[in-house]
Structures are given as structure tokens and as C-alpha cells.
Automatic annotation (TrEMBL):
Pathway the protein takes part in: Cofactor biosynthesis; ubiquinone biosynthesis
Residues forming coiled coils: 63-90
Lineage of producing organism: Bacteria, Pseudomonadati, Pseudomonadota, Gammaproteobacteria, Chromatiales
PANTHER family: UBIQUINONE BIOSYNTHESIS ACCESSORY FACTOR UBIK
UniProt cross-references to InterPro entries, sorted A to Z: UbiK
Entry function: Required for efficient ubiquinone (coenzyme Q) biosynthesis. UbiK is probably an accessory factor of Ubi enzymes and facilitates ubiquinone biosynthesis by acting as an assembly factor, a targeting factor, or both.
One Gene Ontology CC term in the entry: cytosol
GO biological process: ubiquinone biosynthetic process
Family: Belongs to the UbiK family.
Alphabetized UniProt keyword annotations: Coiled coil, Cytoplasm, Ubiquinone biosynthesis
Record's protein name: Ubiquinone biosynthesis accessory factor UbiK
Compartment list: Cytoplasm
């Protein structure tokens, strides 16, 4: 689930998830006429979209990619710190 608009596929997944949840909520909340159920589903969908629009969510995949990038950067920083320390020791 993602809010970021730069990832079209992830936004579509979020929309599908919101649609599914709103349909389930409407189904549980209403056993009356289909029109009432459809109206509830639309209202739930709008409510969920509004709530998620205020969040800055990322997919698990994007999160894991960022973890890998961070791990590589930590290794690079450690190597640079060692290089700087060696250079400082070499200076008179």
C-alpha cells in the first residue's frame, strides 16, 4: 500500500485495496437495498482515501530496497572513516 503518486502501480494497488475494504465494510454494515449498500461503499471508499492521503505510506518492497541502500551506505561510510583515519595517522 502506497500513497506516493510517483509509483503508479502501487497507487493502483492501494486503490484496489481501498475498494475491497469499502465493499466489505458496506456488505457488513448493510443488508438492505443494493442502492444503500452502494452508497455506503462509496462513502467508505472516500473516507479511506481521505485517511490514506494524509499518510506517507510506502510498500514493503520500497522499504526493503531503502534498507539495502542504507546498509550499503553504512559500509561505505565505515570504509571512508577508516581511510580518513589512516590518512590522518600518516600525516606528521
Amino acid at each position: 500500500m502506497v500513497h506516493r503518486g510517483t509509483q503508479g502501480g502501487c497507487v493502483n494497488n492501494q486503490q484496489a485495496w481501498i475498494h475491497e475494504i469499502s465493499e466489505q465494510l458496506a456488505g457488513h454494515a448493510s443488508t438492505g437495498p443494493g442502492l444503500l449498500r452502494d452508497d455506503l461503499a462509496r462513502n467508505f471508499r472516500a473516507l479511506l482515501q481521505s485517511a490514506f492521503a494524509r499518510l506517507d505510506l510506502v510498500t514493503r518492497e520500497e522499504f526493503e530496497i531503502q534498507q539495502q541502500v542504507l546498509a550499503r551506505l553504512r559500509v561505505q561510510v565505515t570504509e571512508l572513516e577508516r581511510t580518513v583515519a589512516a590518512l590522518e595517522r600518516a600525516q606528521p
